[in-house]
Amino acid sequence: MSWRVAIIAFCGLLIAVLTVRIAQHGSDGTGTWDFTRATGFVGYILLWLSVSGGMVTGFRGVPAPFKGGRWVELHRMISILSLAFVGAHMVGLLLDPWVSFSPVDILVPFWSPYRAFWVGLGTISFWLLIVVLVSTFLFSRLGWKRW
Fold first, then answer.
1. Fewer beta carbons below 10 Å: N end or C end of the chain?
2. What are the domain boundaries of the chain?
3. What pTM was estimated for this model as a whole?
4. Interatomic CA distance for residues 6 and 65, integer angstroms
């Protein structure tokens, strides 16, 4: 269920960023840049909610309403949805004419000529998100102690 929601959200965001890019006037407009910043911000907020929600569901002594299957599924859905927004953010960066990013600029930390430090931190965060999501899906094979 979570993956379907994330794929639908990512496709919707992809259509939106392509529409903004097509409607943008050459390299003069900033629509793609604005969209990209917005998706990055929403992705960041979703990641914060995911981490906070995961911590709350994992603490001992948390009241019963904050534990259980519904909260865990909400935590998973927010996590995967954050990946959709981060992915749309990265696609938006590739399409934006204002600051020309290449795939290498986005995927290799500290490679970007534009604000290399901050883009590098974002790239490292992306790769850490991938590692956490992959390990989460391998959870049943790894077990609680290894995970």
1. N
2. 1-99, 101-147
3. 0.79
4. 25
